[in-house]
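Q: Sequence in, structure out?
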Amino acid sequence: MHAWPASEVPALPGKGRDLRIHDTATGGRVTLAPGPVARIYVCGITPYDATHMGHAATYNAFDLVQRVWLDTKRQVHYVQNVTDVDDPLLERAIRDGIDWVGLAERETALFREDMTALRMLPPQHYIGAVEAIPGIVPLVERLRDSGAAYELDGDIYFSVEADPHFGQVSNYDTELMRHLSAERGGDPDRPGKKNPLDPMLWMAAREGEPSWDGGSLGPGRPGWHIECVAIALDHLGMGFDVQGGGSDLIFPHHEMGASHAQTLTGEFPMAKAYVHAGMVALHGEKMSKSKGNLVFVSKLRRDGVDPAAIRLALLSHRYRDDWEWTDQVLDTAVERLGRWRAAVSRPDGPSADALVEELREALSDDLDTPTALAAVDRWAELQTAEGGTDESAPGLVSRAVDALLGVAL
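A: Exactly. Output:
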């Protein structure tokens, strides 16, 4: 599966700072100091509907992580999946009377268009669950054969007790885990499971649903968590720098994925930092496809909204915070974009060297984008009020905002 085209990231003078970021597993900030190549895995979409603001906010956060790393003169190895076969996708296809493959292809293509418009840097490896199945089957067989997984009516389940580190990503108690498992695709009440929290690794073929050759597992399709594990281990290996996604993936998805990988390899941890973006709400409730309270990137673009303004609206909130999308949020971003573009359109201006360092400091401090935006606001206000004589300043501001914030002025 191919990703989307990369926008050019301007090189800035000097060198950026190492990223200090909140790690869900430890509950505090960690300083990420990767080697020459930083490794990041971000969980992708289940393509049964268009990209909404919740998606955009999540991918914006991890785009910033990449930009901070690139500013430190590192390379970035970024991997993202697409869950192109799963119950929600199949259910939507049946509801709409369309082929599930065609639905997945259509919505994945629209996602690529949205990511391109928002100037999100693409992954080097963009892998669908279906194409990953040949690599998933041997991992499930290994877990089963080692006693870390078991069969139940033809389905294969992972035993969470096989991983001594289970629970150390979310640090949730058992009651909350069981509640979230039921809410987010698990089946804690299924009779016959060794532990209610045990997640499915391989679903035996169901009548009327797609299935694939599972070797000794029999025909079926993979569970959600093992999909990401297979892709991450294949392309990044253990101990990669950041496992990313929305905060709704902390449990069960990232918890279970970590346990799968750690049990398979005997190594700990799967990722050096587990980083999660907050949820975006509309009319007081988290945006979700099930509720239908969505603001779509593609709809805003069709309505003529500049993608740079959409990105500024996202940047106006700290990535870890939950926040609410409103017309005022977008109106403020549109106005800010206009002021910034007017400021950099002049032939000269106040020196911007200090601004570049302010942006670097803010972003290295747990991606503090509100502080970064305020710094650019101050430069633009000074440009409007007093101007300046530095002919290189407007161009440097434009390049810095592009390189570090992904906003083209």
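The domain at 19-286 is CATH 3.40.50.620 (Rossmann fold).
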